[in-house]
Amino acid sequence: xxxxxxxxxxxxxxxxxxxxxxxxxxxxxxxxxxxxxxxxxxxxxxxxxxxxxxxxxxxxxxxxxxxxxxxxxxxxxxxxxxxxxxxxxxxxxxxxxxxxxxxxxxxxxxxxxxxxxxxxxxxxxxxxxxxxxxxxxxxxxxxxxxxxxxxxxxxxxxxxxxxxxxxxxxxxxxxxxxxxxxxxxxxxxxxxxxxxxxxxxxxxxxxxxxxxxxxxxxxxxxxxxxxxxxxxxxxxxxxxxxxxxxxxxxxxxxxxxxxxxxxxxxxxxxxxxxxxxxxxxxxxxxxxxxxxxxxxxxxxxxxxxxxxxxxxxxxxxxxxxxxxxxxxxxxxxxxxxxxxxxxxxxxxxxxxxxxxxxxxxxxxxxxxxxxxxxxxxxxxxxxxxxxxxxxxxxxxxxxxxxxxxxxxxxxxxxxxxxxxxxxxxxxxxxxxxxxxxxx
Length: 439
Fold this sequence. Notes:
Elements: E1 7-9, H1 12-19, H2 29-46, H3 53-63, H4 70-88, H5 95-99, H6 103-143, H7 149-174, H8 179-202, H9 219-227, H10 235-266, H11 274-304, E2 308-310, H12 311-321, E3 326-330, E4 335-342, E5 348-355, E6 364-371, E7 377-386, E8 388-394, E9 399-406, E10 415-424, H13 434-438
Antiparallel strand pairs: 1-2, 3-10, 4-9, 5-8, 5-10, 6-7, 6-9
Helix pairs in contact: 1-10, 2-10, 2-11, 3-10, 4-6, 4-8, 4-10, 6-11, 7-8, 8-9, 10-11
């Protein structure tokens, strides 16, 4: 069992610094250009022909903003690739393809064959990445579990859960479920895996019966698996850093799939033009090459990212993160407020401020208040006037705090305030085991 003594889960500030070492080279400008061209070609196909309900849903999805989560986008890309591979199968092509009556038809069939090969290669790489990444995360977590029956119980629970999930997928396929139905189920299962990790961290839900066996599991590990995927947790840094290029690729593949779907139902009305074939082939080539580049990049980022850091590292990063001061002009008769949400008691609210003085020495009122869930306000720091101040306050209640700089007493002079404020979470010391206490 790997030691977690003195460690804490990775923080968003840590990931921001870590990701600085892994900049993603911008996507080819062709991604945006070809997405627009494919979208325009799709609009031409359906402008004189009514859309079916399914086609309307595809149009809406292609024109909507992609999902926010990185892994949800990966599943969305995988779904669209499978949908297009289904369309490209010879038995699912428009009847006009079957005869290959002209050299032009034969050339188009050859182009579609090449597109299929590119999609199959991309799908294989994506499936391999997702499978290996899932195993990597689970196995890394397990290295911090007690290497006895407790770890075995967690592994057995996971194996049973995965068998049940696969049985669900098989049952859906055997009952004639569509590719879309299957991926809706797969994504729900992915979210269930996340819930189970969070439940492991809080020892609730399906893991409640294992609570008594989890004695000895490092608290830092339970904190990690519970909070890692929170909407504003560490992974939000990943979404903001690497989400935009992935969103562009998701939008591109949705538009390629939309074009093929619309084309197949309307193929008899008018065959593909030479320009449309060229654009389609170029779009698939750019999409598959750029998407595979993204997968390779994100795989390397994941493989080198640690789960835990020392409390000292976290403190230093938080200090650096808050090193930048803000400046604001507080007009005469007005106030400036900074609201903070404190999640844990024994957190420290720290401040450092000063006025940018002119020819006349000036001061500004400063105070802090706490608002409880019922809306009742309590003054934490009494109002005083300062030219500058630096201090901190240890919270005994979680909830909403507000720092207030008050220039309401001034009739003529605005105050230029330079400040920084931070909320520093408590550092939890590792608990001593029973054996350590006995010693």
